[in-house]
Every structure is written in C-alpha cells, then in structure tokens.
C-alpha cells in the first residue's frame, strides 16, 4: 500500500508533461476497454433494429375443399412480432433482386423467402405421399453486424 501511495506522490511531483504522459497510460486503456465493453454488453438487446426481408411467394392451396394460405398466416404472425424490423416485400423478381442487392450492401440482415408451394407442402398428413415437407429459404448476409462475436448460423 505504501508503494502505491508513493507512486501517486511521484506522479504529482513530476513536471506537467511527464504527468500527462502518465495519465495517458491510465485513461487510454480505460477508454478503449469501456468502448469495447459497451459494444458487446447486450448483443440481443437491439434486435428490433435488424432488418429482415420477407418475400411471400406462397400461392395457397386447396385442402379438403378449403383454401388455405399458410404463407400469409406466417407473415401475419411475423407482423405481430416486434423483435425484428420485418420488411415485407412483394413477390416479384424485381423485388427479389432488390432484396438480394440490399443483402449484399448490408441493408438487410437476412432474407426469408416463403416458396410458392408452401401451403401445399404444409398440409394435412393424408396428403403426405403427394408432397414434401414445407421449407423456408433463408439467406444470411455476409455483413454480420447483428451477430455477436461473429457467430454465424448454418446457411
């Protein structure tokens, strides 16, 4: 403890230039550490700022005499979810290309595409032999601003 007190006394007895250089070595690491910690303190606290493009290409399906649109149901549920900044785009080639370009630029964090046969594949079990399971196409951007510590999901 005496050594610490003597070091502080020595700092204050030095000339002003030497004292400033000593303070520099104290405050720069503190500033750097504080900025670094603040950047990674709560990585999931602001996911509502991540723009995710959703393209619903689902055509719906006729099941047991009823028209169902599972893709529209999914987008309606996503609209109710405030955890991300959902961007719903019309299902055209022009919009899909614009979404791809936005993904490359980093405007979008991810693109979720609901395929045209999503309702047909997400059907009742009695039609299972005719179709395959319903799948979503998710494309994650290369600019991983939203991933904490550079973590990346599977493509």
Care to describe what's here?
The protein is α/β, with parallel strands linked by helices. A hairpin with a 2-residue loop joins β2 and β3. The chain folds into two domains: 2-40, no CATH class; 47-150, no CATH class. Helix content is 42%, strand content 17%. It has a four-stranded mixed beta sheet with strand order 4-1-5-6, sandwiched between helices. A two-stranded antiparallel sheet has the order 2-3. It has helices at residues 2-13, 16-40, 70-80, 93-105, 118-121, and strands at residues 51-56, 61-63, 66-68, 85-89, 110-114, 137-140.
Features:
5 helices; alpha/beta; 155 residues; 2 domains; rod-shaped; four-stranded mixed β-sheet; two-stranded antiparallel ribbon
Summarize the structure.
By secondary structure, this protein is an alpha/beta fold.
Radius of gyration: 27 Å
Strand order of the largest sheet: 4-1-5-6
Structural class, by secondary structure, is alpha/beta
- The secondary-structure element order is HHEEEHEHEHE
- Structurally, how many domains make up the residues? 2
> Roughly what fraction of the amino acids lie in strands?
15-25%
Describe the main β-sheet briefly.
4 strands, mixed
- Give the N-to-C terminal Cα separation: 56 Å
Share of residues in helices: 40-55%
- Count every helix, treating DSSP H or I runs of 4 or more residues as helices: 5
The parts where pLDDT drops under 50 for at least 5 residues are 146-155
Total strand segments: 6
Roughly what is the average pLDDT, rounded to an integer? 79
Basic shape: rod-shaped
